[in-house]
Amino acid sequence: MANTKENSPPEIPSKSLTGSVTAKPEEILKRIEEEYCKYLHTLQEAWDMEEVNQRLREAFLNYVRALQEAGPYDALKSYEAYFNYLRACQEAWRPERVKKLFNEAYLDYVRALQQAWAQIDINALNANSLAIIGQNMLVVACYAGKTLHGS
Predict the structure, then answer these.
(1) CA 38 to CA 32: how far, in whole Å?
(2) Where are the domains of the chain?
(3) Residue 120: what are its φ and ψ, rounded to 5°?
(4) Which of 122, 130, 108 is nearest to 23 (CA)?
(5) What Rg value do the Cα atoms of the chain yield, rounded?
(6) Which helix (H) or strand (E) covers residue 72, if one does?
(7) Which of 51, 50, 84 has the alpha carbon at shortest distance from 65?
(8) Please, are residues 32 and 112 in contact by the beta-carbon 8 Å criterion?
(9) CA 48 centroid distance within chain
(10) Average pLDDT of span 63-72
(11) Per-residue pLDDT reduced to its tens digit, 81-114
């Protein structure tokens, strides 16, 4: 059966929800890909392993110095040294800061996606472009689920 005007689905008006002229899917796809890369880059930078390793080395050296100062017979000072070492190790990872960065990156991505999606010309959107957008969304959602909610 030939695909005639009668048999084809009605064309959806090419206006976004805000009433502005819509953008071509290629332009939107490029913007979404850029935001996706920006999101992944932010995640990578959040875990600055060189800084973490430096803080862990300093914590260990401070712990060894505190043990040496405490000597073999001062259990209280040895315990305090160990407690301070554990606290310094925990602070070196700074999970609150990392979680905040992850959350900000996620929200930035979702906002950009929302803005781009509102401007896309859905009449020109092909299945491949939609699949790429969906794949990016899935990856971001998976990372966000692991990093923001611990699930």
Answers:
(1) 10
(2) 25-147
(3) -75, 140
(4) 122
(5) 26
(6) none
(7) 84
(8) yes
(9) 14
(10) 90
(11) 999 999 888 887 777 777 888 888 899 999 998 9
Name 15's bridge partners: 21
pLDDT, one tens digit per residue, over 121-132 is 888 888 888 888
Total Cβ atoms within 10 A of residue 99:
15
Q: Count CA atoms within 13 Å of residue 141 on its CB side.
A: 7
Alpha carbons 116 and 132: distance in angstroms, whole number: 14
Hey, is 151 helix, strand or coil?
coil
pLDDT score for 62: 93
Q: What is the DSSP letter of 19?
A: S
Structure tokens at 15: 């206006």
Q: Which two tokens stand for residue 122?
A: 């859905």
What does the alpha-carbon distance between residue 99 and residue 96 come to, in Å, rounded to a whole number? Answer: 5
The separation between the first and the last C-alpha atoms of the chain, rounded to the nearest angstrom, is: 49
Six-digit token pair at 134?
């969906």
61, amino acid identity = L
Quick check: pTM over 0.70?
no
Q: Are 39 and 108 in contact (CB under 8 A)?
A: yes
Backbone angles phi, psi at 65, to 5 degrees: -60, -45
